[in-house]
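Notes on consecutive records. When two proteins share a document, each keeps its own sequence and its own C-alpha cell line. Never mix them. Below: protein one.
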Amino acid sequence: MSTARLRLQHRRYLLPFRAPVRTAHGVWTHREGLLLRIEDDAGRCGWGECSPLPGWTTETVDAGAEALRELGEWVEERALSRLPAGLACLRGALAAAREPLVVPPEPAALGVAALLPAGREASARLSGLAEAGFRVFKWKVGVGDAADELGWLDELCGRLPPGGRLRLDANGAWERRVAERWLERCAERPVELVEQPVAASPGSAERERRRADDLLRGLAGAFPTPLALDESLAGDGDVARWLGEGWPGFFVLKLSLHAAPEETLAALARAGARVVFSSALETRVGAAHALRRAWAWPGERHALGFGVWPLFAARALDGPVAAPFLRREDVAALDLEEAWNALA
C-alpha cells in the first residue's frame, strides 16, 4: 500500500479458550488483543493483530488501544513509523496489515508439533495424537512438582510412537538445580529440545537478566540436549543480542510479538540459526502472517509450534484444525476478513 493516507480501524477482543491453558505462568482462560484493518484510497484492505503476551513483554493491550485512538481513523502513512519502540506488537501488526498475505508455493506442507496439556493427563492425550499421525509433541512442564513431572516424563517417553520426539517447555520456571536434574534425565531420552528452562521476568533489573542469561549459557554448554530461547526473545532486539553472543541452541519465534520480523528473520538466516516458528495463542490473523513467514524461511525446517487449534470458542477466529502436517493451501485459505467481521 503506497498511499500516504490510510483508513485505520481496530477492534478489541477478549476471547475465551475452549479449554484453559496451564503453563508455569499460571492458568489462562482467555486471550486478549486487537485486530486492525487498514484500507488505502484504492480500496485495498489488510489486517493485522496486536496481541501482547503476558509473561513475555511489558507491552499491554491498553497501551496499544490508546496509541490507536491517538492516531485516529484517518492517518498519514508516515505517522505509523513514529510509534514508540515499546509498542513492538502494535508496530508489527501495522506493518503486517500493509503487506500482501501471499504464502509461497513451496513447500507443499510443513510438520506440526502437537501441544500436550500440562500434568499427567498429557500421557493419555499423547496416545490419541500419535494415532492421528503426530510425531513431535510439546509438553508444558514447570507447572507442578518437579519430582512428579520427572516421573511422568518416563511415562510419556514410553508412549511415543516410533521416531517420536518430545519438546519440553518450562516457561522459565526452573531454578538451576531443578534445570540440571531435568537436563540430566533428558540426555538419555528422545527429547528434541528444552524451551526456556530459566528466565528473568519482564521488566526485571539488568542484574537479574544477566544472571538468567549466564545460567542459560552455562546449561547449554553443560548438557547435550539443545536448549531453546522463548521468553528471552521478547522482541527483535533480543534476537540480535543472542545472535551476537553466538547462542548455540534454538530460537523459538512468536512473530506476533516482533516489530520487524522480516529483518529479524533475515539476520537469523544469515547466521544459519535453528528456528522454530511458534504460536503466541493469537487469532488466525496474527497466525496467518507468522505462517506466511514460516513458509518463506530458507533454513532448516523444524516442526511448527502451531498444533494448538481448535483454540477459541469462536471458530471464525481459529486457524486450521491441528494436523500432523499443515498444508500450504490451508494457510492461504485463512479468511482474515471473516475474523474481523466476527468481532463486529
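Protein two starts on the next line and is unrelated to protein one.
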Amino acid sequence: MKINKINFSHNSISNKDISAVSKVLKSGWLTHGKYTNLFEREFSKFVNSKFAVTVSSCTAGLHLSCLALNLKKGDEVILPAMSHTATSHAIEYTGAKPVFVDVEKISGNINVNLVEKKITKKTKALIVVHMAGFACDMNKIQKICKKYKLQLIEDCAHGLGTFFSRRHVGNFGLSGCFSFYPTKHITTGEGGMVISNNLKFINRIKQLKAFGIDTDIKNRKMPGKYDVIKLGFNYRMTDFQAALGYHQLKRFKKNLLIRKKNAKLYQKYLISKKIQFKKYDEECSYFVYQIFVKKRNELVKLLKKNNIGVSIHYAKPIPFYRFYRNKYNYRKENLENSIFYSNKSLSLPAHHQINEKKIIKICKLILKFLNEK
C-alpha cells in the first residue's frame, strides 16, 4: 500500500508569522522587545496563570525553577522514571539528587501510589510530567505535597492545552514549564515558558534567567547601570522567537480541537485486542497519540518504510541511561511499568495537518501488521 509522506509533526507557521518575525529582525531590536511582553501576557491569559516568563527552553525553565527553590547538594527531588532526560538534568544541575518513581502502565504519568515510599527527610520537591498531554492526578499530588511540605514543579513540555478538572496544568505547583521545541503544539524553534501564581517566585526566575541582574533593561535610568545580585544565566528568549510563538498561540485553540478530533478517529479505527491505549480524555491536549503494541520496533520500521513519521516517548527509562546508571546504580526490577512503557509505546502524529483519510491509512497499516504477527 503506497502512502504519501505523513510527517510526525507539522509546524503551524503562517505567512503572517513569518512577516512578524521579519519585522522584528529588520527593527534591530532583537531582545527585550514588545513581542516578548505580548507573548508572556497572551500565554498567561491562555493558561489562566498570574505570571508567565519566556525562557530559552523548557529545560532552562526547569533548571531555573529548581534554582528558585534553592535546591542544593544533599537535597532529593522525586520525579517519574519516564520523561525526557531534561527533567532529571534540571535537578542534577543544582547538585540535588533525582529520585525516580515508576509510572502508570498506560498513561506514563508518575504512579502517585508509590511516591510516599520514596519520601525521606532529604526530600524537598516533587516534579511531575504530564506525559503525551495527559494530566497527572493533581488532587492526589497536591495532597502529598501538602502532607510532607514538598514544593511542586510541573513539567508541561507535552501539556499546552491540557487541563485537570478544568484547570490548566502548570497552575498546581510553584511553577509550570512549557516547551516550544519544533515538534510541540506551537514552536519558537527552541524556547519555553515558565508560569507561576507566586510573585516572589517568578521574580526569582526573572533575575536568574538574565545573569542575576537586578534591573530590567527597560527600567534602567541610565544605560548600562545595574547591579548583579545573584549568579544567574543567559536563558532569555529572543523577540523574534516570541513573535513566532505569539501568533501561533493566538490561533492555537483551533488546532487543539483538530488534535482532539484526530484522537477520537484513532480510537475509532484502531480496534484490536493487540493494541492498548488510554481512553479518550477531553482535557488532554494530545501532543501525540500513543498506542502500546508488541513488536513495536518492527512496526516502527514498517511505518517509516511507508513514509509515516512516528516517534517513541521514550525508548528508555531515565535511570537506565549510562550517566544515571553509573552514578546511582538503579535496578530494573523496581521500574516494571516504565520498562513496559519504554518497550511498547509508540507515538503517532496527531497534529493539525493530519486528517481522517491519513489516519485511516495509518490505522490500516498498523492493523495489517498486527494481524500478521
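For the record: The chain has a mean pLDDT of 94.
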